[in-house]
Amino acid sequence: MHRHEGPSRGKFATGLAAAVALAATAAGVVIAQYNDRPPWGTDIAYEGGFIQASRIRGYDVDGSRTKALLAGECALMERQGMGGDRAVHDPAAWVAGCLDGAAGRPSRNQGLVR
């Protein structure tokens, strides 16, 4: 019977420890870079504003609320905290999404290529 010989247990343990240390270091760098904000936080903020304004626009029968959004209510809503947790990631992107949604423009995050 032929036995398969791989790396010794010592080499395997050393390699495994090195891989775990490398993964922990990479995770630490990512956490230090982004903290609580995900790397795609700008997209999340933009879509949050876009969806909120699209919903307001959809239920606005006489168009007065849509005009108010375009006249500065998007920024006011963000300052008052009405954007929620999504606006915290990137307030300017949330307002930009809100303005695009209120104006009826398509979301800039749609499609395969942005």
Shape: elongated
Provide the β-strand percentage band. Answer: under 5%
The counted number of beta strands is 0
Overall mean pLDDT stands at 85
Give me the strand/helix succession. HHHHH
Return the structural class.
mainly alpha
CA gyration radius, whole angstroms: 24 Å
Q: Estimate percent helicity.
A: over 70%
Largest sheet: none
List the keywords.
mainly alpha; 114 residues
What features would you describe in this structure?
The chain is an all-alpha fold. Helix content is 70%, strand content 0%. It contains five helices and no strands. The protein has helices spanning 9-34, 41-59, 64-79, 84-89, 91-103. The longest helix is centred in the first third of the chain and has 26 residues, at 9-34. The protein is elongated. The protein starts with 8 loop residues before the first helix and ends in an 11-residue tail after the last helix.
Question: What's the SSE blueprint?
Answer:
Blueprint: H1 9-34, H2 41-59, H3 64-79, H4 84-89, H5 91-103
Helix pairs in contact: 2-3, 2-5, 3-5
Task: Summarize it.
Helix content is 70%, strand content 0%. The longest helix is centred in the N-terminal third of the chain and has 26 residues, at 9-34. It contains five helices and no strands.
